[in-house]
Write a structure and sequence with these properties.
Strand content: 15-25%
Number of strands: 8
Shape: globular
Largest sheet: 8 strands, parallel
Number of helices: 9
Oligomer: single chain
Distance between the termini: 23 Å
Length: 206
């Protein structure tokens, strides 16, 4: 039986996509709209700057009863009292992470093989790219049908990521998927409106 999902709708941060507004304000708008997890992913920030940013995000996520997840940096996650860390192929392994981290451990996967190998060591997966995305133009999309197949066999929750906008959310819902991790769509449109509409689709009774 698949374990329960730790969150429904997550936003991945990318300050380079923000225009005319501080990143923290954009994220707060998304939180107001229904985002219940923020994945802090700013790989080009120094550790000192990342600590400052993570503490700001910890405050605003707590204000909205949402989870804060830090990409890779367990030290930053500890300092900011985050809820989870998001690991990937270039991170320390989940089994090593568990030696020093007691919170959520997510893993960014790109194949079914990775999920099979690691599902006893993590709490959830983010599988990408689900659809074509301009951020990874040369990566072959997994596709909705294959994603559903993989998720149905997994022991742990799997979130879709990649090329998801409001139209694609409707397709997810039709396929029985009521969760998502999203980055670019929140930066192209009003984050409050986008999050509100996505949550409305997910929570609509079929």
């Amino acid at each position: 039986m698949i374990e329960s999902y730790p969150f429904k709708l997550a936003l991945i941060t990318n300050r380079h996509l923000v225009k005319n507004v501080p990143l923290i304000k954009l994220v707060e708008g998304a939180l107001k709209g229904g985002v219940d997890a923020v994945i802090l992913r700013e790989p080009d920030l120094s550790p000192k700057a990342l600590v400052v940013v993570s503490r700001e995000f910890r405050k605003v996520t707590r204000d909205y009863n949402a989870k804060l997840i830090v990409k890779d940096r367990i030290d930053v996650a500890l300092i900011s009292e985050a809820d989870g860390v998001q690991l990937g192929a270039d991170s320390i392994t989940p089994s090593y992470a568990r030696k020093i981290w007691s919170g959520l451990i997510g893993y960014s996967a790109h194949s079914e093989r990775e999920i099979r190998e690691l599902e006893n060591h993590v709490d959830y997966f983010i599988l990408s790219p689900l659809f074509y995305t301009r951020s990874k133009p040369f990566s072959k999309p997994i596709g909705l049908e294959k994603f559903v197949e993989i998720a149905s066999k997994a022991k742990k929750p799997i979130y879709p990521l990649g090329g998801i906008d409001l139209d694609k959310v409707v397709k997810l819902k039709e396929a029985g998927i009521n969760v998502a991790v999203i980055m670019s769509a929140f930066y192209r449109d009003d984050p409050f409106v986008m999050a509100s509409k996505i949550r409305s689709v997910f929570e609509e009774v079929s």
